[in-house]
Amino acid sequence: MTKLPKTKKFEVILEMSQRNYPISLLCQIAGVSKIGYYKWLKRQESPTAKQLEDEEVKKKIMECHKKLRGIYGYRRVQVWLEKIYGLHINHKRIQRLMRDRKGNCWDNACMENFFSHFKTECFYLYSFKTAQEDKDALKKYMNFYNHRCFQKKLNNLRTYPFRTQAA
After folding, report:
1. What's the rounded Cα separation, in Å, for the pair 3 and 9?
2. Please, which pLDDT band fits residue 22 given cuts at 50, 70 and 90?
3. H or E element in which residue 91 lies
4. pTM attached to this predicted model
5. For 167, which DSSP code?
6. Among candidates 55, 58, 63, 56, which has minimal Cα distance to 84?
7. What is the pLDDT of residues 106-157, one digit of tens each?
8. How far is it, in rounded angstroms, from Cα 158 to Cα 122?
9. Directed axis angle between helix 74-85 and helix 49-67, to 10°?
10. Are 126 and 120 in contact (CB under 8 A)?
11. CA gap 145, 116 in Å, rounded
12. For all residues of the chain together, what is the average pLDDT?
């Protein structure tokens, strides 16, 4: 349990203590002090002004996330908060609050995988003179990727037949 953040350890201790395990034993196993655990517990019962402010900022970050379909990283979120709400917030604080957001690590994996293939198998191999040439290459590659490219992770099927088979 040494690699877990203390807050996670405290959450586990709280959960296990509700099952009648002794707190002193749980703290010893987790490698944290009882005093630290009780201080954390007290903060959970009555949040500090900073924690309340963080919750308000998180709501605004989630608003940005919803309005812009989750495409902004912490830098753009920082600018958005400043422009929309006039909030001057340190980028590290925004990063911390965005990491606290529960999410699915796989939610963007498919697109990241596609663009990784697109860049290495198409974009980096040619030099495009116009935006239209770039768009045409993307359309051709999408057709190739979906209809002619075999995917090992799809049991060596092509993407489009795999999707129609799954549906």
Report:
1. 10
2. very high
3. helix 91-100
4. 0.45
5. -
6. 63
7. 556 777 777 888 888 888 888 889 999 989 998 998 888 888 777 777 777 7
8. 18
9. 100
10. no
11. 12
12. 85
Considering only CA atoms, which of 76, 152, 163 is closest in space to residue 117?
A: 152
List, in order, residues 6 or more apart from 16 with CB less than 8 Å away: 26
First to last CA, the chain: 42
The answer to whether the beta carbons of residues 10 and 40 sit under 8 Å apart is yes
Share in percent of the chain as helix, strand, coil (round to 5): 70, 0, 30
**Single-letter residue type at 23:** I
CA gap 146, 124 in Å, rounded: 20
Q: Are 17 and 26 in contact (CB under 8 A)?
A: yes
> Rounded distance, CA 77 to CA 80, Å?
5
Which residues does 32 contact at the CB level (< 8 Å), separation at least 6?
Answer: 6, 9, 10, 13
pLDDT score at 117: 81
Instruction: Decide if 126 contacts 134 (C-beta within 8 A).
Output: no
Find the mean pLDDT for residues 73-92: 92
Contact criterion met (CB below 8 Å) for 67 and 40: no
Contact 7, 40 (CB under 8 A): yes
Residue 138, CA distances (Å) to 18, 130, 144, 159 in order: 56, 13, 10, 16
